[in-house]
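Chitin-binding type-2 domain-containing protein: structure tokens wanted.
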Amino acid sequence: MKLYLTLVALATLSFHEAYAQIDCTELEDGVYGWGCKGYTRCEGGEGTVVDCTPDVFNEEIMDCDDPENVGPPCGLFRDCSELEDGMYADLHLNCTAFYTCQDGIFFGHNPCNPGTVFNEELQVCDFPENVPPPCGTKEEEA
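Answer:
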């Protein structure tokens, strides 16, 4: 049994290394192979995997950052410069949260209670059957 567990552990480590690293030997120093939760930093031909958890990767600064500072799809920041003052359903989060804009400034996210979505018409979180698409399933009344 110990041998089996040892082999599984080694296989897991090998699998992780094979997919986590970028071959940096021929690459200039910089950030490569990034996703929302991490990236590989190449320096002097050596690669280092950087885990951003609980933060996310911010392409603008090429480093980990608070999700509130990062736009979609990885972060929560939303551009309010063209929006009127109000609260808006976050379509990137399937309307399970909303964000507030005031004077063109993003004022953060608020989650809805589980099982509810944001109703922009009423400006509250509500059950999907009471909310029109794209957030809910309420059909138009004839």
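Residues 22 and 47 are 6 Å apart (CA to CA). The first strand starts at residue 30 and ends at 35.

Cheers.
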